[in-house]
Amino acid sequence: MCASRKGTLTVDGEQVVISNPTKLLWPELGITKLMYLEKLIALSPYLLPHCRERYLTTIRWPDGVHGQSFYQKNCPEPTPAYVRTAEQGDIRYVRLDSLPTLLWLGNLACLEFHASFDRIGQPDYPSEWVIDLDPSLEEEPRIMEAAVLVGDLLQSIGVQSVPKTSGATGVQLIVPSAGDVSFDELRAIGLFVGTYLTQVHPELFTIERLKANRGDRIYIDYLQHYAGKTIAAPYTPRARMGATVSTPLTWEEIKGGARIADFNLLTIEERLSSRGDLLQAAKAQPLRPIYDFVSRSKTVQ
Question: What region holds the DNA ligase D polymerase domain (predicted)?
């Protein structure tokens, strides 16, 4: 098939134009654009719910993962009629809420999907709390150990979390929230958690924002979780050589030495067919009592 060949898919009653279907996006794995779109179809029941009603930022790699890339916040033009958008400030964001929209973006070589923490029209009270563990090293063998330590601390204060690989080098801990605390209040909890962990494990953790001052320590990023900022959406592919996918895990997997590279476009379908979406099964928790506890602790100090 000629690399410049075009075709049309009919998806949910909409016409989606597909161009360059044989273009290699992940050359080492032999993943062409057509294969990528097939993977997006399989991922869509899991990826779309985590992007719906969020402001979407994509990263496009027109010539595959070894080419140049660019971030796109504004909806690409021309825009098909089936693509819905949402405006925030002077940006017109794509609302990633349908399979045709997902495939349209996939055809544009959007290889990563980053969703805002704030929901469209609900800027103040998030529906989850996220702590991002960001390694300073490109290869960090301690990342799963670090995730366990943070997860255990959260559990000790009555908070259940779901660990998720970023698909790159880090791990994020996601806590579904009952929506009873604001972003600022969650930052206060995050600072409390981060400060405690850096005092108990100073060789492993840091809350130093400036990367040049972190050494080899893992950054507990409690500031990223805020309105207007984004996260690699659960089940988004990542433009890494291994075609990794940001994947929620069980704590048993984390403690068993799971590797970020194990969860990728070639393995994710089998996992989802057997495990389903671990985040969907997690229950929202009231976090107001935790914030009140942290506030009292500051008062005592």
Answer: 33-278
